Amino acid sequence: MCQDQMVVCDEVDDLLTLLVIKRDEASVQNFKTGSFMWFQIFIEALQRMNDLDTARRDLVSLCKLVYRDNRIELRNIDEFRREYKAGDAIRWYTRPACFYRLLNRALRFQTYDAIISFRLLINNISRQLENEYHKQKTAIETGGGRSVLIVYRGQRMGTTEFNEIRSSRGEFVLINSFFSATTDKTAALVFAGATSTEKEIPVLIVIKADMKIEAKAFADIAHLSVFRDESEILFMLGCIFCIRNVSQNSGENYHTIELVLCSESDVPIRLTDTFDYYIKHKLPPQTDMKSLAHSLSQMNELKTAEKYLKRAYRETPDNELQRLEPMTGMGHVADEVGNYKIAHMFYKYVLKKRQQLLLPNDLLIGVSHVNLGVAYYDLKEFDLALLQYKKALPIFNTGYPKKHPDFGHDYNNVAVAYAAKIDLSHANELLKKARDRLRKAGVPEKHPVTAQILSNIGVIFGKLEDYDEAIRLQQESLEIRQICLPPNHTDTAKSFHNLGIIYDKKNELDLALYHYQEALRMMTKCVPQDSRDYKNTQLRWGW
Fold first, then answer.
1. How far apart are CA 191 and CA 205, in angstroms?
2. Can you count the helices (H) and strands (E) in the chain?
3. What is the pLDDT of residue 281?
4. Which positions does the entry assign to TPR repeats (predicted)?
């Protein structure tokens, strides 16, 4: 992140981006839903970290790099380094200095390196805001005060964004950053500006927020702010609102956008189960760089994930067993971008070391067998892949409860290996068993693993020349991936590729071409162009 990039954006520091989510699950807009869910998982992983000294150093280093030629900001940064305390987080956030600007920009544009560097401030602001929210909520409940606040935020808004909001009454908007509003309408209008331009218009955002509902935290922070006379209300990052109305009264030079803060139960985004499942089963109570890298990898932010896996490896104490975890992650990243030999090297090394350091039936050895099996499968060594998967099953049988989701994963892998060996009926039986195991383990229907199994069953039906059933299954898999994965994810690209193959076999060439084009468009953004998957799709398209 260079200084020039940061300075170019200074003029938009106070803009708030409203991410519209459509109720219609079939809408392509639901790509945004997947992005929002994984961003929230990433933030949750960030908030479970407890590396205070390292976090402070990272924040100071980033700020010094960006403002290295600004003496005033360098003095602010040095003061922060010397004097910052967790209880001062909101005061530092509201202070007119570089911290507010960099943090909001990083959150708005989802610049993961910068967000990770700001984890100290994000976590402390979040905790301080939660604390204020509960104190003020309790005071209202015990004292009988008004629970509903009407607050205002004035700003400029791009015409494209405004037109989308205006056409989305009754829909939901998500806000991925902290943001402030005020109880003073007149003060808010000052920030809206006086005139419209071709690219921007002034808007007044009117927010109705009820402290009695179960929603993201918000609170009056005037007593914590540098500006104590501004009647400032701070909202937690990740708030969800319903668009009630968009209007312009005669004689007004601004448009009014009316929003209502929603409880999570109000929002018909059908990912709540998937989010809750991931938070409960996949995130440890205390996270670290490895956990962050895993979340980034799931989001298809593979280069950033690899960077933090390497950092985790360097910063792990001199403990050979612990260092194998980031090495496993680096194998996964290599596999995702098509570097199958590199992935095989990592997985084979990790398995060998775990066999030396752990008991034979340790679950980590079972996981390593599965990973090595995946590498062999990608290298088209199907017999060796099957051997590794079969070695994992008895370890899982001993170490996991019968309803554990990893059984479903391994049955899926075994089935895929059998399918590659053209034992289709056995493969199909195992895939159905895998899906049943996932259901019994409580894995949501709208989950990437469910989509993977549906896709694999679809491949089987395609090989059996039952093309209509194959299309139905691949389409169902694609819809889940479009909903619960970020845009341009490698798995979504694979779904488009698989559908292209089936339509090709049905001689429906226009549909085949469309799906190959979509697959290639996504792959261009997420895998190297010399990877096997990319080249295979190019060949299918006829390049």
1. 11
2. 24, 9
3. 81
4. 493-526
Which range, 9-18, 389-398, 420-429, is most confident? Answer: 389-398
Residue range 316-399 forms a domain whose CATH class is mainly alpha
Report d(CA 413, CA 434) in Å as an integer: 9
**CA 76/CA 319 separation, integer angstroms:** 39
Q: Compute the distance between CA of residue 111 and CA of residue 113 in angstroms, rounded to an integer.
A: 6
> Can you tell me the distance from the alpha carbon of 481 to that of 187, in angstroms, rounded to the nearest whole number?
44
Summarize the confidence of residues 525-538 as an average pLDDT: 73
For residue 118, give the nearest of 69, 41, 179, 57 by alpha carbon. Answer: 57
Beta strands in 6-134 (DSSP E): 19-21
By C-alpha distance, which of 406, 321, 320 is closest to 370? 406
CATH class of 3-272: alpha beta
Its pTM stands at: 0.86
Each domain of the chain, given as residue ranges in start order, spans 3-272, 316-399
User: At 1, is the pLDDT very low, low, confident or very high (cuts 50, 70, 90)?
Assistant: very low
- Distance separating the N- and C-terminal Cα atoms of the chain: 36
Tokens of 259: 């929003």
- Are 313 and 323 spatial neighbours (Cβ–Cβ below 8 Å)? yes
Q: Are 219 and 132 a contacting pair, CB within 8 Å?
A: yes
Give the model confidence (pLDDT) of 85-108 as tens digits: 999 999 999 998 999 999 989 998
